[in-house]
């Protein structure tokens, strides 16, 4: 399994993982370093830090649960237009890292094609948003101490070794906005393990853990944070959908009689009960959630007006969970990134092809739908204008 074909889905166990592990317990899936070769390297990290200007908290150093002051590893640069940015000082950066700091780079999936593809895999499989953060460390000092996350994580160890002490949860399914905080973790971990290059770890939200480089060996790993989809999200969506009813839009009869208030609540209760008794409520909610996902936007330069009928143009969707449905009137509807398009039914095969998340030649899209290059280019132009597709194979 090469890096180009590395499947985090396969590594974690596919459908068995969804049925037996997701949201229930942690899982370690061992793998070989060679399986990740080319996914992301130290050279890639060096290049990102060289060619981008970052400010905390996007890029930061952490040690013992505290953020290291930026002035200890960077210096302010004032441009001739009086703007200020902080330039990394490699020698000071190296020194802070040698002293025990952990390097953190948030949303590295937006900066590196391979990690972006890894995030896309998880988004398509788990039907949720994913942000990938990178961590690099060289000593046994813990960057963040014993802590828990308010979202599930999938960790991929890219190089070196990392020691994970896992303590388990002390509150079931804690949330970012919660009514109470979890109790402190137990003294002893339920698992004390070391991840080496090629290993993958899944950890549910709310599980206390502490992380450090193993025995002083350098470590490079990425943590894929999975957006939670909870009952609170369902209730919020349901409240939006029910606004179609006049009774929901009406003012609450705060100053009405007891009978008027009871009648109001009974009406609202019946509307909610009807929806909750619907067998397809979760399916409809999931469809809406997919359709309004945040797109991984990308420009399509130099094509700023219309897409030319060029057979070799590479086209890809920038949304990972598009919703495609046949309409009774004989058309096909694509919903993605919060937008909706209706095309003739003959466009469906090319839309199905695009829905796999890969880049496809315009000629292949046209052939799949049995249309001309110009017709295929017209469909793609609409999707590019709607920020659902991009021209070019790069991510």
UniProtKB/TrEMBL annotation:
Cofactor(s) needed by this chain: Fe(2+)
SMART domains in the cross-refs: JmjC
Pfam families: JmjC_2 (PF08007)
Positions of the JmjC domain: 86-243
Protein origin, superkingdom: Bacteria
Record SUPFAM superfamilies: Clavaminate synthase-like
Keywords assigned by UniProt, alphabetized: Iron, Metal-binding
Name the UniProt record assigns to this protein: JmjC domain-containing protein
């Amino acid at each position: 399994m090469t890096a180009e074909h590395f499947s985090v889905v396969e590594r974690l166990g596919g459908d068995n993982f969804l049925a037996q592990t997701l949201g229930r317990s942690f899982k370690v899936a061992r793998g070989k370093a060679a399986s990740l070769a080319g996914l992301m390297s130290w050279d890639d990290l060096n290049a990102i830090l060289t060619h981008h200007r970052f400010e905390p908290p996007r890029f930061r150093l952490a040690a013992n649960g505290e953020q290291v002051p930026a002035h200890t590893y960077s210096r302010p640069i004032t441009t001739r237009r009086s703007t200020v940015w902080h330039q990394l000082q490699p020698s000071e950066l190296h020194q802070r890292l040698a002293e025990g700091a952990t390097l953190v780079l948030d949303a590295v999936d937006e900066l590196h094609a391979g990690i972006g593809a890894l995030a896309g895999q998880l988004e398509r499989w788990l039907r949720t948003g994913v942000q990938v953060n990178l961590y690099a460390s060289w000593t046994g000092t813990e960057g963040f101490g014993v802590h828990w996350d308010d979202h599930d994580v999938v960790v991929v160890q890219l190089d070196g070794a990392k020691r994970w002490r896992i303590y388990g949860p002390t509150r079931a399914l804690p949330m970012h906005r919660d009514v109470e905080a979890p109790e402190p973790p137990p003294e002893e971990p339920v698992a004390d393990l070391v991840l080496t290059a090629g290993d993958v770890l899944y950890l549910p939200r709310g599980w206390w853990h502490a992380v450090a480089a193993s025995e002083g060996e350098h470590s490079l790993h990425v943590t894929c944070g999975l957006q939670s989809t909870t009952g609170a999200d369902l209730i919020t969506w349901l409240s939006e959908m029910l606004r179609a009813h006049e009774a929901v839009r009406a003012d609450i009869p705060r100053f009405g009689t007891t009978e008027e208030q009871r009648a109001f609540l009974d009406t609202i209760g019946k509307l909610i009960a009807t929806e909750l008794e619907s067998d397809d409520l979760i399916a409809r909610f999931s469809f809406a959630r997919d359709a309004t996902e945040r797109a991984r936007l990308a420009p399509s330069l130099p094509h700023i007006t219309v897409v030319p009928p060029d057979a070799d143009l590479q086209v890809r969707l920038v949304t990972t969970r598009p919703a495609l449905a046949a309409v009774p009137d004989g058309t096909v509807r694509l919903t993605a990134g919060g937008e909706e398009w209706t095309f003739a039914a003959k466009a469906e095969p090319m839309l199905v092809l695009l829905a796999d998340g890969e880049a496809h030649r315009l000629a292949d899209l046209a052939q799949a739908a049995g249309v001309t290059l110009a017709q295929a280019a017209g469909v793609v132009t609409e999707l590019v204008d709607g920020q659902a597709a991009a021209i070019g194979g790069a991510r």
